[in-house]
Write a structure and sequence with these properties.
The complex is a heterodimer of chains A (602) and B (234). Chain A has 602 residues and is an alpha+beta fold. Chain A contains 13 helices and 18 strands. Chain A has a 4-stranded antiparallel beta sheet with strand order 4-3-6-7, with no helix packed on it. In chain A, strands 11-10-13-14 form a 4-stranded antiparallel beta sheet, with no helix packed on it. In chain A, strands 15-16-18-17 form a 4-stranded antiparallel beta sheet, with no helix packed on it. The longest helix of chain A has 29 residues. Classes of the chains: A alpha+beta (602), B mainly alpha (234). At the A-B interface, helix 1 and strand 7 of A face helix 2, helix 3 and helix 8 of B.
């Protein structure tokens, strides 16, 4: 009961009392509207404490000594005692030193005016509750790290406890609070309480100035001390880009250099690379004769080479009707030495005895389909030649199948032209021959025997003969032809013809009916057959039409072609050149010209 | 049958005796490796550190309890009571040093004994506090838990101090003195809230003050143990 009364009284007293010294109140701001009152009591180190008061409104009490402080400790039920020490330097301060300071005991102080014996103010407290530690000292910071981007950094802040607080002995245990802010900013960032003497601050921005300060309080108490002096933290933005910049530059330049090197390498070794990456497609391996060998090799090698080829058929000339052979006269040295018109025509060189068969490699592969690519056995071909002395190196000409021998290389002499003889193989130089055979004899049946002899009659000779003999021969302008009719005229005293400069004249003779090399008897000579008909009508008797073609019946031992007389088939013109040759070129009657031969090919 | 009965009785006796033995044998201790070894005594420094830790914890929890109670039950103007450090704290029958100078002059023995007496003096009031707090309708559980925890820790603290006294002072265990508390538990069925509130608040404040005392004493003692010169001199 008494206890409860006491409590209630105390409660009322607290409510009514003025100038309560509250541990949480903000002191030291004297209230001018009030009378004399305590403005605050503080202890710095829990060993001493001070109290301050203010006269307030009552200005007449400002002189020293007008107001006095009395204190009493509840601890020992002592009396009111006066302030042990009025501080001389500071006005209105009462200082309690160590001897007068009791911890864990409640003090009550009173502000009295002694003269009037009025208690203006009273306050009770315990010392540990009014402890406001001094600010920590020695605040400094160190850089912990900087972020990779160089925009943020962390620092470690260190300080020392206030020297007045006896932390070492354990008399006071302090807790610290660090605050920081951007400079000149109004808002302070507060960190958690730290019982140690260091703390790290994370996430500060570079190029910004920061202020850091620290204060402390006793553990499990509420009274913070004053803040320490602020320190400025500033980290300049490390130009980390520079450190990375050269590396990126180096990388870029390195890449460019490598690319340039690669490009140069590729361009310099283009061929090789082409071969490596795009290997050439191997050409089909066809067994053939090395063209280089044909150009440069000796005839012995060629012979062996050609003989070893499988595709040469010895008897091809029997089977292939399209191949015609022309006999060549090799044994007449005089003829060899003479430069025949044929040779001129063919453009062969007569120098030397290079027994080289000139084959022209016909590029026209289209024609190869028409013919079997058969090349006659050179030896067999050589045997066809009259007077073949067994030399294997004499190769006769193959008339029209030049296109059928595409693989044979040609030793081209400089004079071998392709133009007039495109369709025919070139005549070897040593062959002194004409394309036309001489009619040597007549058979009783009416056949004409052709011999490989040559009635060589150059134009000059003919003229000489004309000059000499009052030539009755009709010469072919180019001299390459031996006119059969002229031969007939020589022998049969055929009525003379006009001058030699009249070109061709066809004299179909009665005696030679059916004996011409060409033409089918009975066929009316068309106009085209006689392109060289002179304007004036030939005064000669009209001869029966001479066939353009005749059939070679056989070859005798002397290598003469026996031509059969054509049967009288007037209506049949199997080989009418009109059929085959729509455009008959200049063609004398009765003569087989090389061009004609060529034109006859289908 | 008789033999069976005798056998059963015998087995029961043996089992009971073994149980009694197991209880009687001191607990096996585990060292750092985890193997069971005979309990070894703790070093004095470690013990002192642990005691100090206990005291610190108790002090902090008491402060938190005080704050909790204050926020819940105490109106704002009465916060000044806290500042006063408890007006009606029960007095101690023995003198307890109150200033730093006094503490520095006191011997280790007196320090330890002072701590022990403080601890022992608060055993019962804390129990009382628990009962009174339970009577509040809206007492926060945290407060109740904390008070409970504190009373438990206080017991272990007492044990530690006793061992410490035995070690440091080579004294026997003093017989615990029985303190008469001025605070008697109220038997009123429904006390007025202001009185009980004031009372409890006062109790909490006083306990907090004494916990602070204990912690300070023990820390000073530790300083003395480690470095006697700086702790004793000014």
């Amino acid at each position: 009961m008494a206890y409860s009364l006491l409590l209630s009284l105390l409660y009322l007293g607290m409510l009514c009392g003025n100038g309560l010294v509250s541990a949480r109140s903000e002191l030291f701001t004297p209230d001018p509207s009030r009378g004399p009152h305590f403005t605050g009591c503080r202890s710095r180190e829990q060993e001493t404490f001070r109290c301050w008061w203010s006269a307030g409104i009552f200005q007449n009490l400002t002189e020293p000594g007008a107001l006095r402080v009395f204190y009493m400790t509840k601890h020992a039920l002592s009396e009111w005692q006066e302030c042990p020490d009025y501080t001389r330097t500071v006005k209105n301060e009462c200082y309690f030193n160590k001897t007068f300071t009791q911890i864990w005991t409640s003090y009550c102080i009173q502000l009295r005016s002694v003269r009037e014996n009025i208690t203006y103010d009273e306050a009770c407290f315990t010392v540990e509750n009014i402890v406001h530690p001094d600010p920590p000292i020695g605040l400094n910071w160190t850089l912990l790290n900087v972020s990779r981007s160089g925009l943020h950094y962390d620092i470690l802040v260190r300080w020392a406890p206030p020297p007045s607080a006896d932390v070492q002995m354990g008399w006071m245990s302090l807790e610290y609070q660090v605050q920081y802010r951007v400079r000149n900013n109004s808002h302070w960032e507060m960190l958690d309480l730290e019982s140690g003497t260091q703390q790290s601050i994370y996430g500060l921005h570079t190029d910004k100035e920061y202020e850091v300060r620290v204060r402390c309080k006793m553990t499990a108490f509420d009274n913070f001390g004053e803040f320490s002096d602020s320190i400025i933290v500033h980290v300049a933005q490390i130009p980390s880009k520079e450190s990375t910049f050269p590396t990126t530059l180096v990388l870029i330049f390195g890449m460019i250099g490598v690319v340039i090197l690669l490009v140069l390498l590729i361009f310099s070794q283009q061929q090789r690379l082409m071969v490596i990456f795009l290997p050439p497609i191997p050409a089909p391996k066809i067994k053939g004769i090395d063209p280089e060998l044909l150009k440069n090799g000796k005839l012995d090698q060629l012979n062996s080479l050609l003989s070893s080829q499988d595709m040469y058929k010895p008897d091809f000339y029997h089977e292939d009707p399209w191949v015609e052979f022309i006999q060549l006269d090799l044994d007449d040295p005089a003829e060899k030495n003479e430069s025949s018109d044929t040779q001129h025509l063919l453009g062969l060189s007569r120098s030397g005895s290079s027994h080289v068969l000139n084959f022209k490699s016909d590029d026209d592969s289209g024609r190869a389909s028409c013919y079997d690519p058969e090349i006659p056995n050179p030896e067999d071909l050589a045997t066809l030649l009259p007077g073949h002395s067994g030399r294997g190196d004499n190769h006769p000409l193959v008339s029209r199948s030049s296109s059928s021998i595409p693989d044979l290389g040609v030793q081209q002499t400089s004079e071998v032209k392709e133009t007039p003889i495109q369709k025919q193989p070139a005549v070897p130089s040593w062959v002194n021959m004409d394309f036309y055979a001489q009619v040597s004899d007549f058979t009783p049946a009416g056949g004409v025997v052709l011999s490989p002899g040559q009635l060589n009659s150059s134009l000059e000779k003919k003229k000489e003969e004309e000059n000499e003999k009052k030539i009755q021969f009709q010469l072919v302008s180019d001299g390459a032809y031996t006119s059969e009719n002229t031969a007939r005229q020589l022998s049969a005293n055929v009525p003379s013809s006009p001058g030699p400069e009249q070109g061709y004249q066809t004299f179909p003779t009665q005696a030679v009916e059916g004996t011409s090399e060409r033409g089918v008897p009975g066929c009316p000579p068309s106009d085209s057959q006689m392109p060289y008909l002179l304007p004036e009508a030939p005064p000669s008797p009209i001869l029966p039409p001479v066939s353009d073609y005749t059939v070679v019946q056989e070859v005798d031992a002397q290598h003469s072609l026996l031509l059969n007389p054509p049967s009288s088939q007037p209506a049949i013109c199997p080989h009418s050149p009109n059929k085959h040759l729509p455009a008959m070129p200049t063609m004398p009657m009765g003569y087989l010209t090389p061009d004609f031969l060529g034109n006859l090919t289908p | 049958m008789n033999r069976v009965k005798v056998l059963q009785a015998w087995l029961w006796c043996v089992s009971l005796w073994s149980c009694w033995l197991s209880h009687a044998v001191p607990l096996d201790c585990k060292d750092e490796t985890g193997s069971l070894i005979q309990c070894t005594s703790i070093s004095q420094e470690k013990l002192l550190d642990r005691v100090i830790q206990h005291a610190e914890l108790i002090y902090r929890v008491s402060e938190e309890s005080c704050t909790l109670f204050e926020d819940m039950f105490v109106p704002y103007p009465l916060y000044a009571l806290r500042n006063q450090g408890g007006t009606m704290c029960h007095t101690k029958p023995f003198p307890i040093p109150g200033s730093k100078t006094e503490i520095q002059q006191i011997s280790d023995k007196w320090l330890l004994h002072s701590v022990l007496m403080l601890v022992q003096s608060w055993m019962e009031p804390l129990v009382y506090l628990q009962t009174t707090l339970n009577r509040y309708d809206d007492a926060p559980d945290a407060l109740l838990n904390k008070t409970k925890w504190v009373s438990d820790k206080l017991l272990s603290l007492e044990q530690g101090v006793v061992v410490l006294i035995r070690k440091m002072l080579d004294e026997g265990i003093l017989t615990p003195s029985i303190f008469e508390h001025s605070l008697t538990p109220d038997d009123e069925p429904s006390p007025e809230i202001p009185e009980s509130v004031l009372r409890d608040y006062n109790l909490l404040i006083c306990f907090k003050k004494d916990a602070h005392k204990m912690e300070t004493f023990l820390k000073l003692l530790k300083c003395r143990q480690s470095n006697k010169l700086s702790c004793l001199s000014y």
